[in-house]
Structure formats: C-alpha cells, structure tokens
Automatic annotation (TrEMBL):
InterPro entries in the record: FAD-bd, FAD/NAD-bd_sf
FAD-binding domain sequence ranges: 4-333
Keyword Glycosyltransferase part of the UniProt annotation: no
SUPFAM superfamilies according to UniProt: FAD/NAD(P)-binding domain
Designated name of the protein: FAD-dependent monooxygenase
GO molecular function: FAD binding; kynurenine 3-monooxygenase activity
Organism from which the protein derives: Leptolyngbya sp. NK1-12
Keywords from the UniProt entry: FAD, Flavoprotein, Monooxygenase, NADP, Oxidoreductase
PANTHER family: KYNURENINE 3-MONOOXYGENASE
Keyword Oxidoreductase: yes
Amino acid sequence: MSKKVVIIGAGPSGVLLAHYLLRRDNQYQVTIYERRSDPRLMSFPNARTFPISLNDRGTDALYQIPNVEAAVKRVSLEMYGTVFHQAGKTRVTTRKRPLVTLDRTNLVILLLELLQAYDNNRLNFYFNHLCTQVNLEAKTATIQPLTAGESHTVPYDLLIGADGSHSIVRAAFLTHDLFEFEQKYVLNDYKSIFLAHPQSHPEIKLEAGKIHSWRTNDGTFIVLLHQYDGTMGGVILFPRQHNQVAQLASCEDVLQYFQQHFPEVGQMMTEAEAEAFLKRPITRVLTTSCSHYHYSDSVLLIGDAIHAVSPAIGQGCNAALEDVAMLNSLLNETGDDLKIALEQFTLRRKKDAHALTELSNYSFPSSTRLFIEFILREQLGKLLHRLLPQQCPPSLSQLVFETTVPYAEILKIYQPWINKVKRATERQRNQPIN
Ligand SMILES: Cc1cc2nc3c(=O)[nH]c(=O)nc-3n(C[C@H](O)[C@H](O)[C@H](O)COP(=O)(O)OP(=O)(O)OC[C@H]3O[C@@H](n4cnc5c(N)ncnc54)[C@H](O)[C@@H]3O)c2cc1C
C-alpha cells in the first residue's frame, strides 16, 4: 500500500520533492498544503518574490526531473560574472560556469505546472491552507483553511517540513528534549526592486549576462539581475541600524534616495516602481540551524526550515534543492526504508548545513575595510589557483558558486578568514541598538 506523505510548504524544495516522490513507483501518495494562494492563478506577485541564482548544486537536483531543464531555460538567463559599480567606475569579475538566474515564484510555477504529468489520484494540492500544529506522536498535522472551512487534522505516514525559515513543523520538534535549534537575524534587511526595461535608458550601460551590484560606504548594497522578459529585478539590502531606506516616507523620497546613492538605479526607477517600493514590506532575514532534521521514521525537515541563510551568499535555494536530491538518493540506497533514510539524512547533511550557515554569515564582511580585504583575497586566490592549480585551492567565491565541493570542505579551507569576519561581526552586533 502506498504511504501517505504530507508536505507542508509549496516552495522550491516542497514542490521538487513531490516530483521525486511521485516518480518512485506508486509508493507514495502526496498531499501539499501551502498557506499562500496558488501562484499560477495570481498576477505576478512582485511584493513577495525576488530573483535567485542557481549553480550546479541546485540545477543538478532540478534537472534530474524530466522537462524541468527546458522549462527553467524558458524563464531564466545565464550569468557569466558580476559587475561592481562604485562612484561611476566598474570592476568586473567573470566566471567560467554560468549561474542560472530566475525568479523564485517562476521556479515554483514551472515545477507546479510539470506536476500535472503525474497521476491525479496520487497528488493533492491545497493552497490557502495553513498548517498550525503538528502532533508528532499521533502523526497528525492540523490544517486551517484560510478562505473557508473549519480547521481539521490530517494523518500522515511521512510529514515533510518544507515550510521555510519560520517552520511550524520544526516548532513541534522543540517539544523534544534532544532537539537544539538556533536562529539569528542577519544584520541586513531587504526590499525587492523591479525595474522597467533598461533598454529604454541607452545611456545606462548594464552589460547583459552579468549580475550588477552597487555598494555604499554604510554597507547598503543592491544586487540587480537581468530578467528573461527584458526587465531587471533584485534586492536592496541595508543594515537594520542607522539605515535610511526604512525612513523613506514618500514616492519623492524614494526617487531622491536612489538618484543620490545609486544613480543608475534611480534613473531607471519609474514613479510607479517608487510607489510600489514604498509599499513593499521590509523583510528581515533569519538564519537557522538545528541539531537534527528528522523525527523517528515519520517527519523530515528540508530546505530553509533547517538551514535558512543570508541571501548574500545565494545558496539557500541551491542547498534546499540539494536536500531533495539527497533524500531521493537515500531512498534509493535504503529501498525506501524511511527509518534508515531519515536518520542518514540528518547524519550526512548536518555537517554541510552547519558549514553553509557559517559561510553565509561570515564570508562577506559588512565593514568596508574588511570587504576590500575580501576582494583582494579573491583576486589573489583566483590568480594563484590559475597559476598553481594543484597547490592553491580556488577562491572562496569560486568554490561556493562554481563547484559542488561540499560546504563543510569549503569551510575547512577558509576557516581562518571566516573566524576573522566572525570576530568583526560579533563586535558590530554587540553595539547598542539606537
Ligand atoms: C532576497 C533573497 C534572495 C535570495 N537569493 C538566492 C539566490 O540567489 N540563490 C539561492 O540559492 N537562494 C537564494 N535565496 C534563498 C531562497 O529563496 C530560499 O533558500 C529558498 O526559497 C528555500 O526554499 P524552501 O522551499 O526551503 O522554502 P521557502 O521558499 O521559504 O518556501 C516555504 C513555503 O512554505 C510555505 N509555508 C510556510 N509556513 C507554512 C505553514 N505553516 N503552512 C503552510 N505553508 C507554509 C510558505 O508560504 C512558502 O511558500 C534568496 C532569498 C532571499 C530572501
């Protein structure tokens, strides 16, 4: 008889996992509960979305599912480097392996659309349904419909917590003695930015095929990506303390702020976008870390629920998709023995998930002085690796973005640098909040 799997969260990891499970010979009956509306039926929800870039870690997991690669290619672009803009000057770094960039919501939409290929009797979706509680012993989840209907409990054989950094499934683990959990807010908050076609401003040169980044001395920075439809999308990240972005109170304030501090972005920003920017909520970013990811043979946490990291490192989604591929390999290895597969998932994933959190928190310093040191180290690292590939490892960013070297190995190589940034960050964190 097939096992009843309940997935909480239709983000990239939850929906990709549904694909993997449905391909396993009728063994699983999958039901997904998602608190938000079905993104396929909504006008493009700018306020809640942002572009993400994926490297081989994420695309290897995605492209094992038939037709996903072609669908991703239709809504993504390849990026071969980054242009850093500062005071009218630019500095370019290039990469050999391109990053695939696309909007998070578009990734979810294409994965949802491709789920139609499977037998309807083995798959159910419930959007606008919030999971409010999990009873680990009874193996039930409480589901609250958000539009109409009563709260009810659903039984499961396997529950997947793919419900992001504020995971409610993970919260149920907290009732168990041996579960340890740590969360931290990163020092930067963010808001999404969406800009019209840059072609309408020929005076602004934003090379295609490159990620564009601007940074001010107070640690505020913008990352903008060309989108497949000709627009540009990205985020502005800014320090929570002393930040000007939170103080912007009118459309004029917004335009003036960008024109003064990020002139290229300011020129491309329309009044409508300034208005929309003002209304968009400021989002705080949580990083999470847990002692284990499974409960017995019946619950598993994946993705941001176990290793939410700062967007600055561009790895959260890559790692979330990697989790799914790893679980699939473990099911193959163990002949779908959930007890062993879930235990092994914790054992094998923990080192890398913890290392990813460290790398995300401390690879890229926020102080200007250390950031310059980071750039110099990167340049030197790349040069030495090119000249002496056997003796010198690739630079930190090359290892993270251009290889699938496990995060734990990268951390081992760059531990002294991470320690240095950690000390500086802790000093900054301990400054009094105004
Ligand atoms: C600004 C920004 C830029 C980023 N850029 C990159 C990048 O370039 N590269 C990269 O790899 N990663 C990037 N990330 C990280 C990436 O977006 C996440 O790591 C990824 O989305 C995690 O996927 P997930 O499926 O685990 O969780 P999520 O995407 O968080 O999805 C969780 C889903 O669960 C639903 N949910 C939550 N609670 C409940 C509940 N109680 N009941 C029902 N449903 C629930 C949510 O609505 C959501 O749809 C970025 C993140 C941000 C914020």
